[in-house]
Amino acid sequence: MLFVVLCMVITSLRLVTYSNSINSAYHDIQLIVSVHIDELNDVLAADGVKGVIQRLPVMLRESGDVHLYMGVRAAGEITGNLHVWPKGDLNSHRWWRMTLPYYPAQAETDIYFRLIPLDANTQLLVGYDLQGVELIRKTLGNVLLDNAVLSVVLSLTLVFLMLWMLNRHLQRYNHVCEQVMEGNLDYRIRLHGHSDQFEKLSGNINRMLDWNCVLLDTVKDTSNAIAHDMRTPLSRLRLQLRSMAETQEQPEKLREELQGAVAQLDYMVTLFDNILKIAKAESKEARTLFEYFDLRALVEDVLDLYESVLEEKNKPLLRHMTGQSIHLLGDRHLIGQSLVNLLENTLKYSPPETPVDVFLHASAQEISLQVADRGAGIAPELREKVTGRFFRADKSRHSEGVGLGLCLVNAVMILHGGRLSLLDNNPGLRVELSFPRK
Q1: Residue 213 lies in a domain
Q2: Could you report the per-residue pLDDT of 151-161, keeping only the tens digit for each?
Q3: Residues 91-100: tens digit of each pLDDT
Q4: 323 and 346 housed in the same domain
Q5: Which of 266, 289, 399, 404 has the greatest CB tally within 10 Å of its CB?
Q6: The pTM is what?
Q7: In terms of domains, do 244 and 299 share one?
Q8: pLDDT at 249 over 70
Q9: How many domains are there within the chain?
């Protein structure tokens, strides 16, 4: 669109110049013809038609202008340098154009003229040939064509230059967005000290990201501090209540109530433990503890632990894994906890006597770990929400859990530069953890 506008503007300017030049050439011809008509009118007023006829050859000879044409027609005879006369009754107040055919001493010529009546039987014609106009028309036409090509080249150059500049700036903005989405919240656009609007926009984006980090840190620090400070006293209270519940001297009803209170405390301790695990996964310092380990061996250990639990609910565990070791740089405990969370979800949300499939494959680009069940799955419109803290779909609100399982998994994947994908298993849910090969 910008290219079209630029071409139209430049071409319009050239067309205006072309039109003005042609009009100026015609105006010059009109001035020359008008001067000679005025001079002959003076002769007519002084000496009559006979004086004009006598004066005409003298004026042609004195002017020496081969482009000037003058003639007087009286009684069918033409005096002057014209060998033809225009046909028809021509208006004397208008300008006319006529082609003079080939003549022994003269090539075919177009002239621009006025026709003036001297008396009832006599007419005066004064004109000027259009060779100058045609030369300007031809020259400017060639120039216009050259300029059209130049306009296209110049417009394309300007458009590509502008697109290159825009693309360069947009790449900076897209890069910072990608970095922030991958968990690098401290990444900022480098400023160059310019005063243009792109620099101002970059500064505003940096300040916005700074403010978002402050808000996120405030929320995380508050929740992490609460979880850390509350876990210890709750654990102590749990031990005290459990000890009281196991005392035989307590009435049976009181012991049941104490056991219910212990279960509630277990829920709260689990909640705070999960919050602290998520905080660890979201902390950049966790990357300093990364080490290479065998992911296949880790998956086998977790599956061996949960296989009997799944069999108690008639859920066959089907393993689809490569036979080779898969070395991954990361946090072994956090990745193991992520797999545990996925298996716990299959226990809660998939019906009995349905298999659980675990896939582990590696390619040159990435490592894929998948857990698939035959449950109700997750609606597509909720898949982005389920990775948030404490989110639980309506179908799962009455089941056990605190709504942090997939949130922890997502945080672990971001920490490892990977990707959490929630896919249809038709029926059921297929959760894929994709780790990049490094």
Answers
A1: no
A2: 777 777 877 88
A3: 888 899 888 8
A4: yes
A5: 404
A6: 0.47
A7: no
A8: no
A9: 3
Verify cis geometry, omega within 30 degrees of 0, for the bond prior to 427.
yes
Tell whether 6 and 119 lie within a shared domain: yes
Task: Supply the range of the domain harboring residue 245.
Answer: 219-282
Q: Are 358 and 321 in contact (CB under 8 A)?
A: yes
274 CA to centre of own chain: 40
78 shares a domain with 12: yes
Per residue in 387-399, pLDDT (tens digit) is: 766 555 544 444 4
Q: Does residue 365 share a domain with residue 271?
A: no
Asked if 227 and 322 sit in the same domain, the reply is: no
Question: Domain ends where: 282, 304, 333?
Answer: 282
Q: How many beta carbons lie within 10 A of that of residue 92, not counting itself?
A: 12
User: Please, which residues bridge with residue 71 across strands?
Assistant: 80, 125
Q: Confirm whether 359 is domain-assigned.
A: yes
**What average pLDDT does the chain have?**
81
Residues 111 and 30 in one domain: yes
Which tokens in the block code for residue 166? 């825009």
Domain edge (last residue) among 136, 164, 189 = 136
Largest Cα span, the chain? 155
Q: Which two tokens stand for residue 434?
A: 């994709």
The interaxial angle of helices 405-415 and 252-282, nearest 10 deg, is 20
CATH of the domain at 7: 3.30.450
User: Does any domain span residue 206?
Assistant: no
Give the domain CATH number at 350: 3.30.565.10
**Residue corresponding to tokens 């001067």:** 35
